[in-house]
Amino acid sequence: MSPTTARKRLSREESQAQTRERLIDTAQQLFVANGYGGASIRDIANKAGYSQGAFYSNFASKEDVLLELLRRHMTAEATHLSRVMSGDGDDSEQIFAELDAWASTLNHDADWCMLSIELQLHANRSQTFAAEYQKVWDRHRSDLGQVIGQLFHKLGRIPPAEPAELAAAFMALSHGLALQRMSTRPYPSGSLIMAFLRGLIANAEREKAG
Fold first, then answer.
1. DSSP letter at 12?
2. Could you read off the pLDDT of 143-202 as tens digits, one per residue?
3. 123 and which of 12, 68, 130, 146 could share a cystine (Cβ 3.0–4.6 Å)?
4. 3-state SS assignment for residue 55
5. What's the CA gap between 81 and 83, in Å, rounded?
6. 58 neighbors 19 (Cβ within 8 angstroms)
7. Cα–Cα distances in Å, from 200 out to 153, 157, 159, 180, 190?
8. Residues whose CB falls within 8 Å of the CB of residue 121, separated by 6 or more in sequence, listed in order
C-alpha cells in the first residue's frame, strides 16, 4: 500500500468520525430541545448538515444514538471516579475533597439532566430500548459499585450493603432529582449524594485489623 493510499484512508476515517460526532452532538441538542419523540432522524441529519443516508451509515436508529449518549456519559463518570480511587493515598480529607469537586459539577450540565429524563421516559415506552438501557445501567452500577467498595476499604470501613446496591441507590437519587429539576430551581444532587455518602461512611463499622 502506497503512502498516498494510506493518507486517503486516514482522511476518510477522520471524515467518518467527524460525521458521527456531529450527528451525536446534534441529536443531543434536539433531544433536549424537542424531546425524543419530537426529534426525527431527518431533523437530526438536516441540522447536522448531512443526508439521512449519512445518519443510517452510522446508526441504525434514533435509539442507537440515545444509547451512545448514555454510554459516553456513564463511562466518563465511572472513569473519573476510578481515577480518584486509584491513588495510593488513603487520606480521607483528600479523597473527600476530590469527590466533592466531582459532585459539585453534577448540576452544571443542564442538558444531561434533561437527557436523563428522556432516557428514562423512552425506556418506559420501548421494551427493546429498555433491554439495552438496562445493560448499560447494570454495567454502570457495577463500575460505581467497585468505586464505592474501594472508597470504604481505603477509609477502613465496612459497607452497610453490597457496594453495587449502594451504587444503584445513588444512581436512583441522582436521576430522581433530575426528574424533579426545574430551570428556576436546580436541585443540588451532588451535595445530597455526598451528604448521604458521608453519613453512611461515618456510621459504618470499622474493618478489623489484620
1. H
2. 999 999 999 999 999 999 999 999 999 988 887 776 666 544 555 678 888 999 999 999
3. 130
4. helix
5. 5
6. yes
7. 13, 10, 8, 24, 15
8. 36
